C-alpha cells in the first residue's frame, strides 16, 4: 500500500536530543525542557520571538516542524497539509491552567496560558510561521498509530488535497515528551509504508 | 514614578516572556504594541490581568487597554492615578 | 455526478431540546435556550449567560441506565444520548452488521469531572474512577460502548471546528470505501475551565449574544451533543434507506494568522468555503442559506462577514447564526448546526438570527432576522476554531 509516495525527510525530538534524518543536530540530554528548547532554538537559528510565548507542546512541535519546513518559501503557496496526533491532547498546559483557577483567593486565570489548552494550537503556530493556509487535523489516539497516519496521508495526496503532508506525533506531559515528524510527497525518499513509519518512529 | 516605570518594565519582560529584551532596551515612550515591542492582543489581555492582580485595577472592556498600554509612560500614569493596591 | 455522502440518521441534545423534533420546534418558534447557569457553581454566575441543558448528571445517567459507580463525564453522557438517537433514527438494529466507525469530536473531554474532583483524588478514592475518564479519547470509547460498536473509534480535537472535521473525515472514509457506515459528530459539556478561559479572553457577553450586530459584546458558551449517521450508497440501496440529505461538500483551511483571533479578511474562512465548493461542484449562487459560525464576538463576525462577501460577492444568500438559541457549543457546534442545516433543507426554512438590531458599520450585509419559508436545496455551514482551524460543510437536498 502507498507505494506512490515517499517519506522525504524526518525529525525526532525527545530526551534532550534533536535528530534530523537520524543524525543528531543538537543535544542537551540533562537539561529540563524549557532550557533545552531555548538552546535548541538558538542553535537552529530560529529567529522568531513569539517562540518564547508558546507552551511546551507548541515549542516542541514548532522546533520539529521548523527543521523540516525551513527549505520551503513561506509565501502562502506551500500546499503542505498538517496531520498531527498524540495521546495526551493539551493536558500538560490544561493542568497549568487549572492550577490558576483552583485557588479562590489567588484567582487570576491567564489568557496566555488558556489559549494553549487545545492541542491544535501548535498547528496554528506552525501555520502562522510558514504561511500554511492548508488542511489541518489533530487526532487523539491511545498510542502512536502508523496505520492511520499512512492511510490518512495517502488519502490527502490521492485526492490532491495537498502536494505534501507534514505528519506529526507530538506528545508532551510533565517531563516526558516526543516529537516525531515526517514529510510525505511524490518526491523520492523512503517508501511510505506503515512499517517504515514505525521503524523511523522507533529510531 | 520612576520606580513604578522600572517595575513595569521588569514585569512586562517577565510576564510576557520577552526573551532577549532587557529593561534598558525599553524607553518610556516606546510603543508597546505594533512596531515597538511587538506585543499582540493576548499580551494586552495578560496586561489587563496584571493590572488587576498587582494594582487592583479592573478593566471591563478590552478596548480601554488600548490607550492605557500605549507606552510605559501612559501605563505608569494610569496606574499611579487608579491603583487600589 | 455523485450527490455526496448520504445522511440517514440524526440525534441531538442541546439547551433548546432533547431531540431533533424539540430542537426544530424551538428554532421555528424563536425560543432560545440561554439562561443563568445552574449546574455549575462559578464566581461568574451573575455576569454570564449560558446555553445549559437543564438536566443534572444524575438525570443523564438514569436516562442511559448507568450504574451508580459509573465514570462517565457529562461530555460522554451527552454524546451517548445524541449518538443513540442518531442510530435509532437511522433505523439501525445491528450496529456491527456493516463495517461501522465512530468519529467523535470534543474539546473539553472529561474536564468537568476533573475540575470537580481533582483535589479530592489525593484525599479519598471515592471519585478516583473519573481519572480514567479525563482523556478526550475516553468520550468516544464510552459512546462506542453504549452503541455496542466494535469498529474504528477515533477522536478529533481542533477546537470549535472539531465536529465539522469529524463529519468531513467520516465522509472521506465512506467515499474511499474504508467504512460502510460511520457515526460522526461532537459533544462538549459546560465546564469552569472553558467559562474562565473565555472570560479571561474577554469574549464572553454579559447578556444575550447578538451575532452580526454592530454592538455585539461577545459569545455565550453552551453545551450540546449531536451525531449524524453517514452511509455508503451501497448500504442505502441494499437496505432501501430513507436519505435525509446529502453531505455534498467540505473543506478545511488554516487561517495562519493568530492563536485565537481570526484574520482581518477571513483568509482561512474564505479558503475553506472555496474548497467545499470545489468538492461539491456547486457554485456560490447555488446556496440558499448560510448557517454562519456567527459567535457574536467582535472579531469573528467581522472576519466571517468579510469572508462571506469575498466568497459570494453581491449575491449573499440569507444567512443567520443559531448561536443566540444554543450558545457556542465549542466542539459540538458544527454537529448541532449540521442537524439544523439538514432540518432547513427538509422543511424549507431559514432560521432567524435572534437579538439582531443594528447593522455592522464595516459592511452592508445583514442576517435574516425573521423565520423565512422558502425552497432550500443547498445549505452552507461554517465552523471556525482557535488555532486558525476553519471548516465549511455543504448539505444538499436528497
Automatic annotation (TrEMBL), chain B:
<dbReference type="InterPro" id="IPR006162">
    <property type="entry name" value="Ppantetheine_attach_site"/>
</dbReference>
<keyword id="KW-0472">Membrane</keyword>
<dbReference type="InterPro" id="IPR020894">
    <property type="entry name" value="Cadherin_CS"/>
</dbReference>
<feature type="domain" description="Carrier">
    <location>
        <begin position="1"/>
        <end position="83"/>
    </location>
</feature>
<protein>
    <submittedName>
        <fullName>Phosphopantetheine-binding protein</fullName>
    </submittedName>
</protein>
<keyword id="KW-0596">Phosphopantetheine</keyword>
<dbReference type="Pfam" id="PF00550">
    <property type="entry name" value="PP-binding"/>
</dbReference>
<dbReference type="InterPro" id="IPR009081">
    <property type="entry name" value="PP-bd_ACP"/>
</dbReference>
<keyword id="KW-0597">Phosphoprotein</keyword>
<dbReference type="InterPro" id="IPR036736">
    <property type="entry name" value="ACP-like_sf"/>
</dbReference>
Amino acid at each position: 500500500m502507498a507505494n506512490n509516495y515517499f517519506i522525504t525527510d524526518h525529525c525526532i525530538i525527545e530526551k534532550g536530543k534533536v535528530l534530523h534524518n537520524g543524525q543528531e543536530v543538537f543535544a542537551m540530554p540533562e537539561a529540563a525542557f524549557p532550557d533545552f528548547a531555548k538552546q535548541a532554538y538558538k542553535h537552529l537559528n530560529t529567529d522568531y520571538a513569539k517562540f518564547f510565548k508558546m507552551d511546551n507542546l507548541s515549542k516542541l512541535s514548532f522546533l520539529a516542524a521548523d527543521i523540516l519546513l525551513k527549505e520551503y518559501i513561506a509565501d502562502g503557496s506551500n500546499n503542505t497539509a498538517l496531520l498531527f496526533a498524540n495521546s495526551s491532547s493539551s493536558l500538560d498546559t490544561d493542568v497549568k491552567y487549572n492550577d490558576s483557577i483552583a485557588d479562590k483567593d489567588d484567582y487570576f486565570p491567564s489568557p496566555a496560558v488558556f489559549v494553549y489548552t487545545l492541542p491544535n494550537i501548535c498547528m496554528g503556530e506552525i501555520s502562522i510561521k510558514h504561511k500554511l493556509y492548508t488542511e489541518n487535523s489533530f487526532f487523539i489516539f491511545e498510542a502512536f498509530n502508523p496505520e492511520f497516519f499512512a492511510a490518512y496521508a495517502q488519502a490527502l495526496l490521492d485526492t490532491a488535497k495537498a502536494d505534501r503532508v507534514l505528519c506529526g506525533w507530538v506528545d508532551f506531559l510533565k517531563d516526558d515528551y516526543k516529537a516525531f515528524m515526517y514529510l510525505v510527497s511524490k518526491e523520492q525518499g523512503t517508501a511510505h509504508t506503515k512499517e517504515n513509519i514505525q521503524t523511523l518512529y522507533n529510531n | 514614578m520612576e520606580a513604578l516605570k522600572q517595575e513595569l518594565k521588569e514585569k512586562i519582560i517577565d510576564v510576557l516572556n520577552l526573551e532577549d529584551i532587557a529593561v534598558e532596551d525599553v524607553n518610556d515612550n516606546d510603543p508597546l504594541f505594533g512596531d515597538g515591542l511587538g506585543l499582540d492582543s493576548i499580551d494586552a489581555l495578560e496586561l489587563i490581568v496584571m493590572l488587576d492582580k498587582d494594582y487592583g485595577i479592573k478593566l471591563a472592556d478590552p478596548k480601554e487597554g488600548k490607550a492605557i498600554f500605549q507606552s510605559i509612560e501612559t501605563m505608569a500614569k494610569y496606574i499611579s492615578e487608579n491603583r487600589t493596591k | 455526478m455523485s450527490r455526496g455522502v448520504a445522511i440517514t440518521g440524526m440525534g441531538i441534545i442541546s439547551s433548546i431540546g432533547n431531540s431533533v423534533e424539540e430542537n426544530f420546534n424551538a428554532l421555528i418558534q424563536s425560543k432560545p435556550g440561554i439562561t443563568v447557569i445552574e449546574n455549575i457553581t462559578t464566581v461568574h454566575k451573575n455576569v454570564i449567560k449560558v446555553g445549559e441543558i437543564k438536566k443534572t448528571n444524575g438525570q443523564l445517567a438514569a436516562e442511559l441506565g448507568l450504574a451508580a459507580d459509573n465514570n462517565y463525564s457529562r461530555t460522554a453522557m451527552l454524546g451517548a444520548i445524541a449518538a443513540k438517537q442518531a442510530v435509532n433514527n437511522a433505523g439501525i438494529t445491528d450496529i456491527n452488521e456493516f463495517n461501522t466507525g465512530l468519529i467523535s469530536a470534543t474539546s473539553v473531554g472529561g474536564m468537568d469531572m476533573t475540575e470537580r474532583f481533582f483535589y479530592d483524588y489525593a484525599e479519598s478514592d471515592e471519585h478516583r474512577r473519573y481519572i480514567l475518564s479525563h482523556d478526550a479519547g475516553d468520550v468516544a470509547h464510552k459512546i462506542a460502548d453504549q452503541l455496542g460498536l466494535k469498529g474504528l473509534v477515533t477522536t478529533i480535537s481542533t477546537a470549535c471546528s472539531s465536529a465539522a472535521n469529524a463529519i468531513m473525515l467520516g465522509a472521506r472514509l465512506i467515499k474511499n470505501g474504508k467504512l460502510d457506515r460511520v457515526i460522526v459528530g461532537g459533544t462538549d459539556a459546560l465546564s469552569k475551565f472553558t467559562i474562565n478561559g473565555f472570560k479571561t479572553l474577554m469574549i464572553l457577553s454579559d447578556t444575550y449574544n447578538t451575532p452580526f450586530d454592530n454592538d455585539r459584546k461577545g459569545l455565550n458558551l453552551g453545551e450540546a451533543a449531536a451525531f449524524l449517521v453517514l452511509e455508503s450508497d451501497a448500504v442505502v440501496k441494499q437496505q432501501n434507506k430513507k436519505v435525509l440529505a446529502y453531505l455534498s461538500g467540505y473543506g478545511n483551511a488554516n487561517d495562519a494568522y493568530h492563536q485565537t483571533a481570526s484574520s482581518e479578511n477571513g483568509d482561512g474562512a474564505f479558503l475553506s468555503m472555496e474548497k467545499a465548493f470545489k468538492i461539491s461542484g456547486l457554485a456560490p449562487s447555488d446556496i440558499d442559506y448560510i448557517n454562519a459560525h456567527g459567535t457574536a464576538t467582535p472579531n469573528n463576525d467581522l472576519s466571517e462577514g468579510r469572508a462571506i462577501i469575498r466568497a459570494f460577492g453581491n449575491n449573499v444568500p440569507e444567512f443567520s447564526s443559531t448561536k443566540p438559541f444554543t450558545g457556542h457549543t465549542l466542539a459540538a457546534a458544527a454537529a448541532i448546526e449540521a442537524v439544523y442545516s439538514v432540518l432547513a433543507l427538509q422543511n424549507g426554512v431559514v432560521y432567524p438570527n435572534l437579538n439582531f438590531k443594528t447593522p455592522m458599520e464595516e459592511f452592508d450585509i445583514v442576517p435574516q432576522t425573521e423565520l423565512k419559508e422558502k425552497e432550500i436545496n443547498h445549505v452552507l455551514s461554517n465552523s471556525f476554531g482557535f488555532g486558525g482551524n476553519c471548516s465549511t460543510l455543504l448539505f444538499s437536498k436528497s
